[in-house]
Design brief:
about 425 residues, alpha+beta, BirA Bifunctional Protein, domain 2, Rossmann fold, 2 domains, eight-stranded mixed beta sheet, five-stranded mixed beta sheet, 17 helices, elongated, binds adenosine-5'-triphosphate, binds magnesium ion, histidine-tRNA ligase activity, EC 6.1.1.21, HisRS/HisZ
C-alpha cells in the first residue's frame, strides 16, 4: 500500500466492478441518444457565480457543499456541484438556441463534487448522467424526459423504484403561495436557521426531514391550492402523457427539490432499497434559469440520475448486469519463437476487431493457463515450437474444453466464425 489513500468521501472504481458503472452510464444514456439528445461535455469547474446565481444563494449546495478555489490569476472558481447550470451556460455561450430549432436537447455524463458528510450513497465525488431540453415549453417534453428515465431504469432491470411528481408553479402563482406559506411558517416554533430559511427559501422548509418540524407542518397551505390555471392545465397534461405511456407515478405535493431554479414540473426517482439516501435521480422544469444567468427567456426541463446510487439500487435488488467478457481470445506462447509469432497474431486479431490479449510475464504452461482463465476469454490460442514447425496453433474452447489445431493463416477466419 502506498502512503496515500483516496480522499475522504471518494472511492476508486476498479475492475471488474468498474464495468458495472460503464454499463449503467450506457443504459441511462441509450434512450437519450435514441431520442434526439446530443452529447455535451463541459469543464469540471466554472465561475463560482454561475452556481451562486444559477443554483441559488440560499441552497445547501451553494452555502455548504461547494468546493471553491481562487486561482493564481485571481479567478474564483467552483468544482461543479451539478450539471444543469454548466450545460445551459455552454448552450448559451455557443448560441445553440439561435442556431437551429428549439428545444436544444443535450445529454451529459460526468463527475460532480459536493462537500457533504460522507455516508453510503453520499459522496464528495460522484457521477451523474443527465439530460436537458432547452428552450421549449411543452408538457410532452417534460413527459418525454420522465418516460426516458423510467425506460433507462427498466432496461437495467430495476423495478423497486417510484416516481414522485409535483408542480412548483410559475412566476404568476408561486409568489402568492410563497407569501401564504411564509405567513403560516412564521407562526411556528422553529430553530434559528429554519426561521432564516422562511425568509429566503420557505418552500425548502416543507422538505425538512425532522419529525418535530414535519409535525408542525400539518395544515400548512399547499401549493396545489394556489396553482394558476395555466400551471394546472400544464401539469394535468404532463400527468396524462406519462400515464398514457404506462409509467406509474405518485403525486407528491411536498416534493420541493434542493435547487432554487425549478418551476412547474418537478420529479424525483426514489428507490426503496437504499435507506436514507433513497433519491436515485431527480429533475424538473427551470423556466427562469436562463435569465438568472444573464441569458434570454428559455423555458427548459431536465434531469440528472446518480450513477453511484443506481449501482447501489442494482445491488439492493440483487441484479447482476450481463456484462460480456472484455477479451474474446487469449494467446499463450511457449518459447521465444512462439512469442513473436503469437504476439503478431494478437495484433492482427485486434486490427480485425476481435478483442484479444496476450499472456505476459508468466513462466510455464500452468501459470500461462491461469492467466487465460482469469481473462474470461472464450478461446485460447496456444503455440509451442512443435506447433510452429507444423504451421499450426492450438485453438481451445475454454467453455467446452475442446481443442483443435488450426493453420496459422486461418486463425482469424476460424475465430471469426466461432465468435459469430
Ligand atoms: P439528496 O437529497 O440525496 O441530497 P439531491 O437533491 O441533492 O439529493 P440532485 O442534486 O437532484 O440530488 O442530484 C441528482 C442525483 O444525483 C441524486 O438523486 C443522487 O442520485 C445523486 N447525488 C446527489 N448528491 C450526491 C452525493 N453526494 N453522492 C452520491 N450521489 C449524489
Ligand atoms: Mg443533496
Amino acid at each position: 500500500m502506498s502512503t496515500f489513500k483516496a480522499p475522504k468521501g471518494t472511492y476508486d472504481l476498479i475492475p471488474p466492478y468498474s464495468a458495472t458503472y460503464l454499463a449503467v452510464r450506457d443504459a441511462i444514456s441509450a434512450p437519450l441518444r435514441a431520442s434526439g439528445y446530443g452529447y455535451i461535455e463541459t469543464p469540471g469547474f466554472e465561475d463560482v457565480d454561475l452556481f451562486a446565481r444559477g443554483v441559488g444563494e440560499s441552497t445547501d449546495i451553494v452555502t455548504k457543499e461547494m468546493y471553491t478555489l481562487t486561482t493564481k490569476g485571481g479567478a474564483n472558481l467552483a468544482l461543479r456541484p451539478e450539471g444543469t447550470a454548466s450545460v445551459l451556460r455552454a448552450a448559451l455561450e455557443a448560441n445553440m438556441h439561435k442556431a437551429g430549432g428549439l428545444p436544444v436537447k443535450l445529454w451529459y455524463s460526468g463527475s460532480y463534487y459536493r462537500y457533504e458528510r460522507p455516508q453510503k450513497g453520499r459522496y464528495r465525488h460522484f457521477s451523474q448522467v443527465g439530460a436537458e431540453a432547452i428552450g421549449a415549453e411543452d408538457p410532452a417534453l417534460d413527459a418525454e424526459l420522465i418516460i426516458l428515465a423510467d425506460q433507462a431504469y427498466r432496461t437495467l432491470g430495476l423495478s423497486n423504484f417510484r416516481i414522485l411528481l409535483n408542480s412548483l408553479g410559475d412566476k404568476q402563482c408561486r409568489p402568492v403561495y410563497r407569501e401564504a406559506l411564509q405567513g403560516f411558517l412564521r407562526g411556528l416554533d422553529l430553530d434559528e436557521e429554519t426561521v432564516r430559511r422562511i425568509e429566503i427559501n420557505p418552500l425548502r422548509v416543507l422538505d425538512d426531514k425532522r419529525a418535530e418540524v414535519q409535525k408542525q407542518l400539518v395544515g400548512a397551505p399547499m401549493l396545489r391550492d394556489y396553482l394558476c390555471d395555466d400551471c394546472k392545465a400544464y401539469h394535468e397534461e404532463v400527468r396524462e402523457l406519462i400515464g398514457a405511456a404506462g409509467v406509474a407515478f405518485e403525486d407528491d405535493e411536498k416534493l420541493v427539490r434542493g435547487l432554487d431554479y425549478y418551476t412547474r414540473t418537478t420529479f424525483e426517482f426514489v428507490h426503496d432499497g437504499l435507506g436514507s439516501q433513497s433519491a436515485v435521480g431527480g429533475g424538473g422544469r427551470y423556466d427562469g434559469l436562463s435569465e438568472m444567468i444573464g441569458g434570454p427567456a428559455l423555458p427548459s426541463v431536465g434531469w440528472a440520475l446518480g450513477v453511484d446510487r443506481t449501482v447501489l439500487a442494482l445491488q439492493a435488488e440483487g441484479i447482476e448486469l450481463d456484462i460480456p467478457a472484455p477479451t474474446s481470445v487469449f494467446a499463450v506462447a511457449l518459447g521465444e519463437e512462439a512469442r513473436k509469432v503469437l504476439f503478431g497474431k494478437v495484433t492482427e486479431l485486434r486490427k480485425e476487431g476481435i478483442a484479444a490479449d496476450f499472456s505476459y510475464g508468466a513462466k510455464g504452461l500452468k501459470s500461462h493457463m491461469k492467466n487465460a482463465n482469469r481473462s474470461g476469454a472464450r478461446f485460447t490460442l496456444v503455440a509451442g515450437e512443435r506447433d510452429l514447425a507444423e504451421g499450426v496453433v492450438q485453438l481451445k474452447d475454454m467453455e467446452s474444453g475442446e481443442q483443435e489445431a488450426v493453420a496459422l493463416e486461418q486463425v482469424t477466419e476460424r475465430l471469426r466464425a466461432k465468435l459469430g
